[in-house]
Amino acid sequence: MRHCILICSVLFACYPASRSQTVEHSGKWIEYVNEMAGDDEDDTRMEMLYSELSDISEHPFDLNTVKAGDLRRLPFLTDEHINSILSHIKRYGKMVSIYELKDVKGLNHATRELLLPFVHVPEKEGGRPPLPLKYLPKYGRHEILLRYDRCLQQKKGYRDLPDSIAAQYPNRKYLGEQFYHSLRYTVSLRDKLQAGITAEKDAGEALLNKNNKGYDFYSAHFLLKNTGILQSIALGDYKATFGQGLTISSEFVPSHTSTLVRQEKRTHGFTRHASANEYDFLRGAALTLDCKNINISAFYSLRHLDAAVTDSNYIASIKTDGLHNLPREMQKKHTLKMQTIGGNILYSSAELSVGLTAINYRFVNHKIIPKPQPRNIFLFRGHENTNISADYTIRKRNIMIFGETAISANKAIATLNAIKYYPTSRLELLFLHRYYDRQYQAFFANAFSQSTTTQNEEGFYAAMRFNPFADLLLSAYIDSFRHPWLKFGIDAPSTGIEYMAQVDYPQSDELTFYIRYKYRQKEKNAASASAPHPTMPCSRRSLRLHSQYRLGAIDLKTAADGVAYSEAETLSRGIAISQSAGCAIPRQPLQINLYAAWFNAPDGATRLISLEKSATHAYSRPQLCGKGLRLATLIRWDILKCLALTMKIGNSHYSDRETINSDLEEIEGQDKTDIQILMRWKI
């Protein structure tokens, strides 16, 4: 592996630098998504966001015909950014180059760099008007995406077992092959229609052996948009988002990141589900009618979920990871049937938006009864629940006020309200308050919080972004929160605080730099033989220094990360230093990105995330935990105009252990090597 990377480095250095050939801008937004995820976000929702942004980067918006709703799909753009872009085009006419974005008021250097992969200006003037559906056979855009991932070392769960041991302990060996594989086919007609199918198997799931013949997961979607009064109609698998997410939302909501001055929900209504996520979607039909300033939406879903059925024929918890690689996991597959009916009415004008959402979901074949533990007292029990909410957004000059209040069938309330103030284009302020009753129950809720559920939390959040000069950006936030009832890992009500400060200094297009400090304190159970356990405070401090600079055709990134974790009388520290280099080879359809990181993070509390570049449509965030060296090479080859091949090889070498991971994922030795191959064919 090391020899392979060394050879690539030599070949990479031998190509002459060309000022006109630089590494593609996609690395900016990929890095943005990794940082947006933080250290402990749910990767399943991150994968959905990454997949959507990958699609947009492959098929960017026409700047001269783009709509506000399209730009709101980009999480780094605020409403002020969007209004500035559209107002600039309306005032000065159509752009002739994407680099005219430099003249848009309030659009700083960092935001422009993030935006560039998602927009373009066509060579021909006038853009392209929407096409009727009869033109689908001639002008439809077809795309096939194949992905293959594999760890080269054999894991414990794939080793052969004697028949007697396998019969006695069937869950000691995975059912399927060691590789991950997915297939996706999509067809689209500009902004009118999107349709496609997705098939996937995770590592360890059976594809073609005695245990199974075919993929473990299948998904199909059909989305028709902008056809007169019918704003959208979705069939098959789709996602829904309304209000601030207190009743239903499939949108990724980062709980803490430097970009959180903008917290208002951006998407509204239905979008396709084209990723391989096996949990966060609806399956059925949905439509939205556009009646001038009023939108009326309705949806229906009937799908199966994974859960373990107890001897008493009820469900204690729902399985969300989508893995079916062991006999005990297969027993949970599609055991719970869920029916969902809902709707939304939205009135929207330039200064005011008011919405009303109602949703009813019912578990058809089993009753939900959580395990009898003190922290589970207020969780949902039964067959059926209903959530109703009202949301609002008020825009007045340089002030935006938004929020939502929801109620569940047990009359518990959740509410989120915020005010955003931007006195100038250089300053943005946000103040947000949330209160989620410990008894509030909403299966599809996904709102801003420190927890994974919209329940048992209250807090106040304040954020600021200040751009005093064209080449300086200051960002900061503070979040004070409280959990009135018990949570997993803590046997008492608890409090916490988190704050962050970041300075971005883009000195030029060739050199950018930022420094970030982040602190988080919360409470957890202390080590004790008795229950309930006494609680104790714990804190995590992290510091990152990051610089990016371009030398001709070469794009270089250097980063240093440090973290300190303390609890009781103990203190542990972690550190990682990384360097990456990317280049688009002059006069060749080839791009190469090299990455190296040295890390020393002794335990899980001090683990760090590798910020190496990933292939589009293939989200991954390797963790740096232990002591060692991480090397990775990513190569993209545009074989033809319609055919691209991306290959990534990553190796983690640990100097502090003889085995890696544990249980069935255990690897003997000090190295873990992963390969990832992605082929995209456009027709």
Question: Care to describe what's here?
Answer:
This protein is mainly beta and 683 residues long. The chain contains nine helices and 35 strands. Helix 2 runs antiparallel to helix 3. The longest helix has 16 residues, at 43-58. The chain is globular. The model is unreliable at 1-25 (pLDDT under 50).
Set out the fold topology.
Blueprint: H1 2-14, H2 26-37, H3 43-58, E1 61-62, H4 68-71, H5 79-92, H6 109-115, E2 119-120, H7 136-139, E3 141-151, H8 163-168, E4 180-189, E5 193-201, E6 208-209, E7 212-213, E8 217-227, E9 230-241, E10 269-272, E11 282-291, E12 294-309, E13 314-319, H9 327-330, E14 336-348, E15 352-363, E16 367-368, E17 384-396, E18 399-408, E19 413-424, E20 427-436, E21 457-469, E22 472-483, E23 494-506, E24 511-525, E25 535-551, E26 554-567, E27 570-584, E28 590-601, E29 608-609, E30 623-624, E31 626-640, E32 643-654, E33 659-660, E34 667-668, E35 671-682
Parallel strand pairs: 1-2, 13-16
Antiparallel strand pairs: 3-4, 3-35, 4-5, 5-8, 6-7, 8-9, 9-10, 9-11, 11-12, 12-13, 12-14, 14-15, 15-17, 17-18, 18-19, 19-20, 20-21, 21-22, 22-23, 23-24, 24-25, 25-26, 26-27, 27-28, 28-31, 29-30, 31-32, 32-35, 33-34
Helix pairs in contact: 2-3
